[in-house]
Amino acid sequence: MNAQWIDIPSNDGHTFSGYLSLPPTGHGPAIVLVQEIWGVNEHIRAVADQYALAGYVVLAPDIFWRMQARVDLDYDEAGTKQAFGYYQTINAAQAADDVAAAVAWLRQRPEANGKVATLGYCLGGRLAFMAAALSQADAAVCFYGGGIEQQLHLAGQITQPILFHYAADDQHIPHSAVAAVKQAFSGKSNAHFFDYPGVGHGFNCWGRQAAYNQSAASLATGRTLCFLAEQL
Question: Is residue 27 among the annotated active site residues?
């Protein structure tokens, strides 16, 4: 893959890192890919490369940089304990602003065609949602975004197309939270929802064998690619 770590200017005068993966053509529409709580680890970098091979310029920003630069954790007990420590400490509003800064930076890159989507998993799904409101990205995709129901005051600012993927047996996102998000977008043609029966939280992550579901992951990724092809 044509990939490298690059520096991104933050909105408060600092810089932070991001993993930039380019498509085989070297240019195309763009995605800001927002990590799970384990950092921009092997899995997230592989997902970035996967979307890059589909023709997208993909940037996975390091959203934990204000606490620890380039967090890269395994899914074992020690890594997961550390990951939840970062999750419990992060300032989500500040992190969403960093994602919005990554959108603005990527939109101006010569490799990108000016169209940018936010796409995130778990915590990243929530930040992709929040950054869509802050940055006016051209589209957004949220895979099992935990805590979105606490950010619904932003729903009115999200007028761009947005796609939600939810696990029907999610152990971390209650059905009431999913219902609240659906209600907030009820009657709005820009929002699209897919539910995946029989699978739990993290079904897209092959690094988490107990959570991963190949069929649901393949279906959700295919739907995401169709959505992005239409919107970008």
Answer: no
